[in-house]
C-alpha cells in the first residue's frame, strides 16, 4: 500500500530552527510537496521537490532523497505565525497526490 | 479577486437529507478536486475532474457524486447524508492533472446528525 509518515506534533522555540521529516512509500514518484495549513484555514502550497537535494525559499527549505524515500522541511528563524500544520504529499505514478496526516508545529515564545 | 470559492462555509444537516456543496474557481484551471479532512487522517480524495465534462473517483467516493458541466464549477452532492460524512470538505483546483500545486477553497464544515 501507499504510505506517508510524518510526526504528529512538534514544539519549537521562537527564533530557532526546526526540521519536519517525512518518509514515504508510494507506487512511483512524480514529486514531493509541502503545504502549510493554519488552524481552521485551507492548505497553501509551500514547496516542490522532484530531484534529490535541497530547495531553498526564504526561511523555508525542503530536502529530498528519492533513494531513501525521505524528505524534510526546514524552517529557520521561527516566528509565532509559523504555528500551523505542515502537510507532506507525494504524487504517485498515476499523478494522484498521497497525503500524510500532517505535523502540527507549536511555536513557544 | 482570483481564487476558489466554496459554499456554504458551515452546515448542520439531518441524516438522510440531500446536500450539495458548491465550488467555483475563476483561474481557468483544468483540474478540480474534492477532499475531505478528518482529524488524524490525511486529506482523502473523494472525486476529481481532469477537465470539463469528465470526472473520476478518488479514494473515498461512496455516498458522493460530482458533475463538471463547465470549467469553473464543480459541485459535490451527498444524496442521503450519514453521520460518517461529518467532516471538513475542501475543494481544490490545479492548472493540470499532473501538477501537485493545488489551490484550495476555504473549506465547508459539514455536521450530519
User: Which strand-content bin applies to the residues of chain B?
Assistant: over 45%
**Number of extended strands of chain B:** 11
- Structural class by helix and strand composition of chain A: mainly beta
Q: Which oligomerization state do the chains in this entry correspond to? A: heterodimer
The assigned structural class of chain B equals mainly beta
Helix count of chain B equals 0
Provide a compact summary of the structure.
The complex is a heterodimer of chains A (109) and B (113). By secondary structure, chain A is mainly beta. Chain A has strands spanning 3-5, 9-13, 18-25, 32-37, 44-49, 53-57, 60-65, 70-75, 84-91, 97-99, 103-108.
Explain what this protein looks like in three dimensions:
- The complex is a heterodimer of chains A (109) and B (113).
- The model of chain A has no long low-confidence stretch (mean pLDDT 96).
- In chain A, 0% of the residues lie in helices and 57% in strands.
- Chain A is globular, with a radius of gyration of 13 Å.
- Chain A contains no helices and 11 strands.
- By secondary structure, chain A is mainly beta.
- With 113 residues, chain B is mostly beta strands.
- Chain B is built from no helices and 11 strands.
- In chain B, strands 2, 4, 5, 6, 9, 10 and 11 form a 7-stranded mixed sheet that branches.
- Chain B is globular and about 35 Å long.
- Chain A binds chain B through residues 4, 8, 30-31, 33, 41-45, 48, 87, 89, 91, 95-102, and chain B through 40-45, 58, 90, 97-98, 100-107.
Amino acid at each position: 500500500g501507499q504510505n506517508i509518515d510524518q510526526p504528529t506534533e512538534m514544539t519549537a522555540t521562537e527564533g530557532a530552527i526546526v526540521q519536519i521529516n517525512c518518509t514515504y512509500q508510494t507506487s512511483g514518484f512524480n514529486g514531493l510537496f509541502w503545504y502549510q495549513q493554519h488552524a481552521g484555514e485551507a492548505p497553501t502550497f509551500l514547496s516542490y521537490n522532484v530531484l534529490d537535494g535541497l530547495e531553498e525559499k526564504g526561511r523555508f527549505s525542503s530536502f529530498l532523497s528519492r533513494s531513501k524515500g525521505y524528505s524534510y522541511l526546514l524552517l529557520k528563524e521561527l516566528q509565532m505565525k509559523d504555528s500551523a500544520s505542515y502537510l507532506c504529499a507525494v504524487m504517485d505514478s498515476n499523478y494522484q497526490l498521497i497525503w500524510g496526516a500532517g505535523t502540527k508545529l507549536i511555536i513557544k515564545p | 479577486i482570483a481564487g476558489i470559492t466554496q459554499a456554504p462555509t458551515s452546515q448542520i444537516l439531518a441524516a438522510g437529507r440531500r446536500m450539495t456543496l458548491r465550488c467555483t474557481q475563476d483561474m481557468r484551471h483544468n483540474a478540480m478536486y474534492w477532499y475531505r479532512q478528518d482529524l488524524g487522517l490525511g486529506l482523502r480524495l473523494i472525486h476529481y475532474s481532469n477537465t470539463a465534462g469528465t470526472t473520476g473517483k478518488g479514494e473515498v467516493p461512496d455516498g458522493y457524486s460530482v458533475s463538471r458541466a463547465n470549467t469553473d464549477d464543480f459541485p459535490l452532492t451527498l444524496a442521503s447524508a450519514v453521520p460518517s460524512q461529518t467532516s471538513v470538505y475542501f475543494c481544490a483546483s490545479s492548472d493540470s492533472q499532473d501538477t501537485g500545486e493545488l489551490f484550495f477553497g476555504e473549506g465547508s464544515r459539514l455536521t450530519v446528525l
